[in-house]
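[Automated response] Your request has been received and processed.

Submitted sequence:
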Amino acid sequence: MIRTPALAALALTGALTAAVAGTTASTASGAAPSHRQTAAVGKGGPGHWTKVSTGGVQSIFMPSLVKSSDGVLHVVYPENVPGGMQLGHTALDSHGRILRQNDVLPTAWENVDRRPVVLSTSTGLRIVFTGNQTPSGPTFWDHGLMYTATGDQGGSSWALPAESLGSNAAVPTYGTGAVMLADGTTPVGAYADGDVKLSWHIGVGNDPDASYTTTSPGIFDTTLVRDGGEIWAGWYQNGSTAATNGTFAMRIYPTVGTPLKAPQSSGGASSHTTGRVALAARSGGGVFEAYCAGSALPCTSLRVWKVGSAKTSTIPQSKGATRVALSPGPSGRLWVAWTSSAPQVKAVRTGATGLVMGAVRNAGLPPRADLTYGLGVDGTRARGDLVVNVGNALWHTQVLPGLTLHASPRSWQHGGRQKVVFSVTDARAGVAGSKVRVGSKACTTGKGGTCTLTFPASFGKGKHAATAARKGYAKAATRLTVK
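Generated structure:
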């Protein structure tokens, strides 16, 4: 793990009191200058990669993704700029084209959170992050607290109010998590200290943080999600026993629950982190977590777990995974994205229960990329939006959910008339209205996702491609064999 530069020793309480007394929200809330402005740039869409970062990017930098209510995707990330570090913001339309790029902070800071979180609120956007404006200066932003920046819905302008989530220094942090309460106005921020403590704070204010302390050190990669009125935290823990090693989840609001370990997320006291913990609250209820099963890295496989139950599902084609991200999708579905050591970037959308997998989609790689690091996914609309860190830049693409096409029978002897039943599914559910084609012959699936073609005795020997297509999905294919 990479540690953010530590703060010098501070008499925090006295310094914070003096800083608050000498700073007001009105003097702190100047809009960040925007030295980068664009409009509808790039081709976008599935199969196209668009570079979304502008400053210097390191492999440890983690993007955060959220869609505002108008369907615009907002990507926030740390970046190296002249004079220090910044928080960069890129907005993309529903087709993956860049609408806007700008800075969040009024000026460069000495250091900025490597894993900021951007949230959609009832009035716009809010970013939760930590950092230091200067190494050990007298201002409110020199104490390494958990700060927030606020923006309008489009992210066209940003303000830096003199407010924090708690009074404790969050620098150095080993993973920032954040989410909004159901009221849409109250942020919740959390951070891990890399040792034994997970701290969180409900709403802005300099009252003390709440915390959970483990019996074994090594808490990293915090994530927060909201499931109805409950807030859940996920984290990776590098403990010294099987009980304290692996991927965990715990309710922290309105009451604090008991830590729950993802099934087989370690092999004894050995496991591996896959970046910011992949935790998501499913539309319709339930918290889910994706993680590397066992102790090997690259992973033997990834799993999705319904938190609080014994139910897990193995993600197909996930052998060799190194990073994983998770997002809620429409109608109770989830989107899972992962990178591998190949390198590859893949994604899959689940069925409505969150545990049945659809067809895996290979998103390819950004131009000239030979390694992949952190990634994020947003699947709250029909498509999956992916952002991947390739070590020196962040790139965006989209993927469509995949169809699966089956034929029965798939092979037969030449010389006889043959009826073939085609089945088109998405995560095992039939997809009506899909067009199945074999050469010049075609049929359309009905309510159950099936249709039939009858091939004459003269149908040629050999292999024949069958495809299935439906708007909003990537095509599926299979082969028929006439012997």
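Summary generated for your ticket: The chain has a mean pLDDT of 91. Residues 404-482 form a domain with the Immunoglobulin-like fold (CATH 2.60.40.10).
If you did not submit this request, please reply to this message.
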